[in-house]
């Protein structure tokens, strides 16, 4: 129920922003999708996004909210580690290691 309420409120805020900004020079105009690959990518992204929310809600039936939050708080650290591992095999651009960022990520998990 909480996720659904967040989605409804987010949609309403976006709708208000969209309708107010429409009459200003800062009008939001989405980029048109020109190829079938772009359409495919948007559909896949939407499905993956919805699947992420569904699996997160499903997992709450099996683990406590505290464990769920601990797992989700580890994502920045695991993302950093996977980026560094992919950089070693030249599949991702190498970024220097900043100990302050890593320390903050670890503190966020603890």
Short description:
The chain is mainly alpha-helical and 110 residues long.
Notes on the structure:
- The chain has 110 residues and is mainly α.
- The chain has five helices and no strands.
- The longest helix is centred in the middle third of the chain and has 24 residues, at 36-59.
- The chain is extended and about 45 Å long.
Q: Main traits of this protein?
A:
110 residues, mainly alpha, 71% helix
The counted number of beta strands is 0
Given the C-alpha coordinates, what overall shape results?
Answer: extended
Strand-pairing-aware structural class? mainly alpha
Main β-sheet: number of strands, strand sense, barrel status?
none
Which percent bin holds the helix content? Answer: over 70%
Q: Secondary-structure element sequence?
A: HHHHH
Beta content comes to under 5%
Low-confidence stretches: none
* First and last CA, distance: 28 Å
Mean pLDDT: 89
Number of helices: 5
Please state the CA-atom Rg, rounded to the nearest Å.
19 Å
Q: Could you give the topology of this structure?
A:
Elements: H1 2-21, H2 36-59, H3 65-73, H4 75-88, H5 99-109
């Amino acid at each position: 129920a909480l996720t659904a309420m967040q989605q409804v409120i987010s949609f309403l805020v976006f709708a208000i922003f969209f309708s107010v900004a429409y009459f200003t020079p800062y009008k939001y105009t989405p980029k048109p999708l020109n190829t079938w690959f772009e359409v495919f990518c948007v559909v896949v992204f939407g499905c993956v996004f919805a699947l992420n929310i569904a699996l997160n809600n499903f997992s709450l039936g099996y683990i406590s909210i505290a464990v769920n939050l601990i797992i989700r708080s580890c994502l920045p650290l695991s993302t950093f580690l996977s980026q560094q591992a992919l950089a070693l095999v030249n599949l991702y651009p190498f970024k220097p290691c900043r100990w302050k960022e890593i320390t903050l990520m670890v503190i966020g998990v603890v």
